[in-house]
């Protein structure tokens, strides 16, 4: 009998234990990382898994001092009421005593009832004192207008008190009942907002007086974090204004698709003491964000406040990667205290912790304060990927050829993209905080800046080189007429690049008759320059500035007068000129930080315009348009670049100014292309931003976001809104 063949039995090889150890370690670390940083990973990938809400329909907001309510209502497309509506302001209160004091003082002349509800416990169930009730005397100035009640959290069952958002909803229902007991009637205005969401007086005036306002609209508030030194964005939208009816409910969520632009301020976590930061972090509905106990460490909180970082170590909540990268890192500081609540500025000493330079907070009485270190910006990993892709592209001869061709064609763009690697940022300016509020005296304003006040004002001379910016020049002269003693203006019969041009100012002199007696004018012919000079735009520009320097000296200027050196589209604000005229001890030379706009005031860019200067004139003062000092006055006016009425003016400037070499293709001058770019807020020269860090580069990439705000702009522009509508929100279309 044949023997059966049985193949040899092979045992399954078990990997040695030593190979399992790294696998287990990697797996364990990965699990721990995901569980510890799940929220950060989720926020980083949010643009992939979440969709943004439906965009609001934004209502442009117009305002200028000394414009009547009928004019303001008409600018918004509304009528005027024969008598004003009553306004009721309703808030849930926790412990924001300083912010509430600012709110009530700011709105006192315009609000008929302040409805306020507080509780003996937080939304997370932590017992708390009745702060408002215990400090009621602090609000005696508004006593007759206050409708107050308190809520005991003990009325809720244990299951509800463990759900912060349910407790918050219970508070809002109680506030809803208090509103109905306050005397409100159908047709009154009800403002629903948290205590730190403050509508501006200008907004409340519109709500009181204008006929035809929407029955419900949200209020777009400028977001600040920790103080007014850290402006974030304009994405605060939860505050609402209602024309009250019996079905109106107090809510703090989306209730309409309409939002009024630039309607006030939202100052989040704006507390005086460190202990109040720690209390709110544990107390409000998002207390689950306190992922580690050390988040409540006073030294850590102090450092974060001064650096403008995130208290919860979270990534921004954004729906696109562009917005995500734009918001990463610390919040840039602002030295502006202009266009803030007037009561805040009038009481700057009391509320200095909310103003530029006031980041240090008290922990407890007598406790030491820890000075924060300056946070560093995060570099983007995307640069490494770009570099790697370029190296890979050069892997073959054909790809290398394509790469070389691309570099020669797009050298400027590549150079700008890599600028953070090959160029260094200039020395930062020392920024002088700028304070202003209406109805404050010049002695008060000068003192806030650390200066004295003069017994008589200085004279102010405003000197510009003029090309063809007639509309902007009219706005400039109309705005500055009460404050400037002489307007010195020089124009030429040719551009810096040698293109002949008419003497636009001279030919339109009648348009400026309102300032006639103050104007010192001259023109120069480019013909006397030699051919080499004419071929060098910057040399021609320098020659113009030397000629303007001579004209200034013929204008009657004297030692000690103020000389403003700026281009025609760089407009200092009246508040800035008042400081220069009246304050004793101002620097002999300082730059003026202007709010940058592109194409119109619908496209605000940044506050990086610095070339305009203010000088206390001496015989050695030269007219220059370059850096002359390390000092700069914050938020000192407006710079509206390429802000022309006609497409032909855009074409002319693109060919005419010193950077005409940026017109790399003839198609750049195509009128249809220019019109599209103006309405989209894109770059006329198809260039990347000129920035010195990758963070700033990525932040500026893409179109300029539109603004519907016509607040805090030159008053002359708003008074003549019909004439200059192409410079205002919605006016991007230009005739050829």
TrEMBL record:
InterPro entries: Glyco_trans_17 (IPR006813). GO terms for molecular function: beta-1,4-mannosylglycoprotein 4-beta-N-acetylglucosaminyltransferase activity. GO terms for cellular component: membrane. This is Beta-1,4-mannosyl-glycoprotein 4-beta-N-acetylglucosaminyltransferase. It comes from Eragrostis curvula (weeping love grass). The lineage of its organism: Eukaryota, Viridiplantae, Streptophyta, Embryophyta, Tracheophyta. Keywords: Membrane, Transmembrane, Transmembrane helix. One of its GO terms (biological process) is N-acetylglucosamine metabolic process. The keyword Lipid metabolism does not apply. Pfam families: Glyco_transf_17 (PF04724). The keyword Transmembrane helix applies. The chain crosses the membrane at residues 20-38.
């Amino acid at each position: 009998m044949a023997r059966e063949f049985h193949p040899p039995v092979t045992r399954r090889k078990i990997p040695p234990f030593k190979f399992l150890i790294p696998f287990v370690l990697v797996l364990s670390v990965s699990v721990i990382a995901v569980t510890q940083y799940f929220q950060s990973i989720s926020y980083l990938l949010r643009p992939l898994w979440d969709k943004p809400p439906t965009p609001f329909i934004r209502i442009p907001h117009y305002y200028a001092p000394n414009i009547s309510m009928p004019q303001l209502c008409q600018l918004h497309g509304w009528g005027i009421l024969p008598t004003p509506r009553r306004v009721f302001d309703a808030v849930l209160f926790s412990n924001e005593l300083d912010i509430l004091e600012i709110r009530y003082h700011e709105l006192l002349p315009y609000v008929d009832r302040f409805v306020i509800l507080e509780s003996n416990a937080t939304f997370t169930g932590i017992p708390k004192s009745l702060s408002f009730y215990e400090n009621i005397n602090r609000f005696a100035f508004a006593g007759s207008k206050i409708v107050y009640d308190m809520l005991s959290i003990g009325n809720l069952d244990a299951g509800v008190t463990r759900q912060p958002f349910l407790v918050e909803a219970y508070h809002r229902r109680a506030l809803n009942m208090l509103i109905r007991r306050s005397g409100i009637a159908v047709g009154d205005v009800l403002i629903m907002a948290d205590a730190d969401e403050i509508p501006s007086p200008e907004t409340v005036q519109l709500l009181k007086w204008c006929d035809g306002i929407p029955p419900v609209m949200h209020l777009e508030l400028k977001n600040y974090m920790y103080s007014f030194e850290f402006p974030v964005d304009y994405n605060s939208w939860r505050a609402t204004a209602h024309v009250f009816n019996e079905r109106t409910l107090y809510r703090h969520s989306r209730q309409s698709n309409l939002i009024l632009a630039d309607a006030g301020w939202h100052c989040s976590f704006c507390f005086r003491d460190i202990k109040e930061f720690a209390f709110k972090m544990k107390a409000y509905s998002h207390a689950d964000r306190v992922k580690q106990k050390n988040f409540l460490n006073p030294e850590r909180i102090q450092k974060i406040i001064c650096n403008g970082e995130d208290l919860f170590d979270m990534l921004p909540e954004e729906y696109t990667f562009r917005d995500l990268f734009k918001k990463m890192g610390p919040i840039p500081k602002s030295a502006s205290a202009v266009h803030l609540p007037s009561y805040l500025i009038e009481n700057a000493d009391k509320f200095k912790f909310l103003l530029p330079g006031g980041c240090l907070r008290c922990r407890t009485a007598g406790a030491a304060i820890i000075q924060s270190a300056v946070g560093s910006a995060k570099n983007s990993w995307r640069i490494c990927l770009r570099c790697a892709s370029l190296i890979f592209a050069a892997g073959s001869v054909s790809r290398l050829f394509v790469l070389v061709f691309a570099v020669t064609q797009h050298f400027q763009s590549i150079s700008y993209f890599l600028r953070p690697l090959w160029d260094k940022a200039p020395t930062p300016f020392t920024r002088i905080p700028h304070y202003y509020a209406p109805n404050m005296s010049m002695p008060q304003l000068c003192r806030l800046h650390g200066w004295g006040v003069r017994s008589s004002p200085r004279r102010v001379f405003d000197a510009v080189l003029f090309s063809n910016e007639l509309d902007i020049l009219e706005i400039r002269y109309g705005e500055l007429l009460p404050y400037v003693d002489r307007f010195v203006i020089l124009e030429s019969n040719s551009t810096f690049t040698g293109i002949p041009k008419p003497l636009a100012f001279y030919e339109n002199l009648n348009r400026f008759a309102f300032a006639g007696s103050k104007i010192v004018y001259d023109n120069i012919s480019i013909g006397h320059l030699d051919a080499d000079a004419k071929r060098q735009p910057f040399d021609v520009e320098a020659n113009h500035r030397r000629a303007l320097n001579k004209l200034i000296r013929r204008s009657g200027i004297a030692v000690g007068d103020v000389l403003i050196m700026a281009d025609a589209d760089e407009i200092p604000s009246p508040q800035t000129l008042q400081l220069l005229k009246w304050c004793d001890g101002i620097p002999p030379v300082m730059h003026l930080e202007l709010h940058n706009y592109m194409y119109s005031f619908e496209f605000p860019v940044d506050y990086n315009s610095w070339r305009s200067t203010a000088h206390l004139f001496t015989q050695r003062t030269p007219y220059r348009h370059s850096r002359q000092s390390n000092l700069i006055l914050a938020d000192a006016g407006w710079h509206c670049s390429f802000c022309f009425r006609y497409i032909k003016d855009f074409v002319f400037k693109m060919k005419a100014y010193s950077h005409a070499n940026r017109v790399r293709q003839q198609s750049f001058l195509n009128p249809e292309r220019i019109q599209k770019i103006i309405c989209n807020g894109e770059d006329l020269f198809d260039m990347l931003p000129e920035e010195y860090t990758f963070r700033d580069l990525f932040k500026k990439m893409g179109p300029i976001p539109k603004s519907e705000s016509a607040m805090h702009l030159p008053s002359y522009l708003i008074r003549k809104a019909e004439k200059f509508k192409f410079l205002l929100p919605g006016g991007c279309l230009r005739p050829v």
